[in-house]
Design a protein that fits this description.
Strand content: 5-15%
Shape: elongated
Structural class: alpha/beta
Number of domains: 3
Helix content: 40-55%
Order of helices and strands: HEHEHEEHEHHEEEHEHH
Amino acid sequence: MDPVSGELAFTGERFVPGARGEIWVEHWHRYHFAARLAAGQRVVDAACGEGYGSALLARVAASVTGADISGEAIAHARRTYSATANLSFVEAPCTRLPLGDGAADLFISFETVEHIGEQEAFLDEIARVLAPDGLLLVSCPNKREYSDRREYANPYHLKELYREELQALVARRFPHTRWFGQRPSFYSVIAAEPRSEHAQLVEVSEASPAEAGQALEHPLYFLVAASRSATRVEGLPATLSVFADRDDWVHRDYEKVMRDVEAAAARAESLAIQVAERESAVQSLQRDLEAAHKSAAEAAREAAQAQARLLAERDRELAVKDAALAAREAEILRRRGLRWWLRLPLIRLGLLKE
């Protein structure tokens, strides 16, 4: 959890609002799909994580209980969604829920079963908590597509299931099933105006995925069916048509482009780091050169000052020597004079001073 914002960090183990990429489409779509079944129901949302899905279901449900084994996630959910009166959260493993028998009309658990090793115990607990005529809505990855075909291993998945394994796991407790498939990809959608009551169209923005529209607000193209006969037009069904790419060609091309973009971004970041390191090295060398120049200039200045002091001292010594020499020369000149020689006998007798 971020100590400043209080938001749960996205580690890859559980989805949190704000996580980037197609993962947000997958998770929000499942909860919007479940919301159509939750109206007026007592709902249990096992492995609720951050709590965003439980909060979405609480808008239409009689009550919602979100459960998760993570104390950090539950604390965050209680703090974030505390204003919703019919919503509560409990910290508990999904195999041992602190709920009474038959406490739920609708039991929801998305992307949970593959994260736990006690899968049989999990389904037993669902059967206990769910009312006899209650409805279970569970999702898990299709191992054949999610891992095998993509050669991908999710480190948080303990045991992924093939269709027949999931079917056997569920059917032992719930003999009546209806299967739905989900695949995030690139689709072309044609939606009627007004919308059909028998089809669901959910349109959201990434900034507020809980606020759903029921129509395409900004279609890129218009398709118009027209006739001179009113009955001919009125007889057209309010169709929701989805055109899917079976081979995922566009999506795979998109993934390739994104990988190329990410690789280019990584190279650009690496080059930027190298440039920054070189600039730092150049600046360091420049500083060292400036310091060397400064040191050399200081040394030259100190040498010049020392030389000046030596020259001055030498000049003083020479001046003293010159003065002594001049005095001696003057004395010599004086003694060479006739007067000095005439006075010399008297000086020696002590009668005159030299």
